[in-house]
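Hi R.,

Here are the chain sequences for the assembly we discussed:
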Amino acid sequence: MKFICAPLSIRKGADERVTWAVYELKGGLTLLSWIQKGVDCVTDMIPLPQKEPQIQSLLSPDEIGEWVLVNYGNTRLECHNRSKENVQWTWDIPQQASSLRIFKASECPPTRTIDGHVLLAISTKAEFYPISPENPPSDPAVSLALEEVISFV
Amino acid sequence: MASISTPFPLISTSYPQNVHISAVLASTDEAVVAVDGEGLSIHHV
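And here is the predicted structure of the full complex:
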């Protein structure tokens, strides 16, 4: 068993953690969800048919843990639910990104007026997309030159 | 699957290449560790 990228874990209360990971075994990729609540443990495994481009990271769209975004090489995102085998949605990132991050919109000055979470895709510019497990992103809510982003740091 | 525990220090230059570590979201003092061939574990740091 070989892990493909860093796992994603979310703390939900004092004794509950939801953890996602992708591993390769006998040439196949599996998305694993592991819920540890006290001494109780539940795992679910979802086969991932696609191996290319290589999975780069796992992202949480809402910090709840029911859903995870599989990031294929910063070019495509797939949204998975731990209890469903089918992909909820896929999204081809319009511009090849060098970095993807998700955070609460209220925590960042350029997106403070947006509800929920935003995906920041860094390419030749910084684009902030409202994101949710239900639907893929559409147009960026905010698009900034990288120099403008630095002014917020 | 490993349970929540702290069997060894998290930051070490002797870690092999087959270890992935990330911070646990919504936690200030936990990390999740994936070790090839072994599994996942969550550690207090």
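Chain B touches chain A through 22 residues (CB under 8 Å). Strands of chain B lie at 19-23, 30-35, 39-44.

Let me know if anything looks off.

Best,
T.
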